[in-house]
Amino acid sequence: MPQYCQIDDVQRMIKWTRFQYSNVLDPGDVEEFIKEAEAEVESRLSKKYQLPIAEDDKRIVKFIVVRLASFSIAKVLVVQAGGDIPETVLEWKNEAEARLKQILDDEVQLPETPEDPQWKPDGGLLSIKSSEPYWKKNTDQW
Fold first, then answer.
1. Which of 1, 62, 97, 120 could serve as 124's disulfide partner, Cβ 3.0–4.6 Å?
2. What is the pLDDT of residues 90-129, one digit of tens each?
3. Is the peptide bond before 52 cis (omega within 30 degrees of 0)?
């Protein structure tokens, strides 16, 4: 069962977009798209935050998951019909990616979810014996 949004959330978003073909989907298929979107979001957030995401922060993540899942579903519907992806649908993906970037860049916080103690904003790796990055991104490259 999805953690951050429900099937109805995604179906509501898709129904407001006019496709040149059917936008009726099996709820089981919608749930799979949601799970894929959740996995992608969690994999990216896990670089900075400890999982699971706190209950009070799930509404922030919901915004991203609904848009990514809706985009993926719409893309499949478009490919099946041989049409073009509507601009509105492309905006869903862009909005989701922008919000995810804001979270990872500290412009938007998940205030109730603890950060991973190994997280370093500069992308460095921590040594076991030091709290300073052992290798720094764009500095110590081989």
1. 120
2. 999 999 999 999 999 999 999 999 988 776 665 555 545 4
3. yes
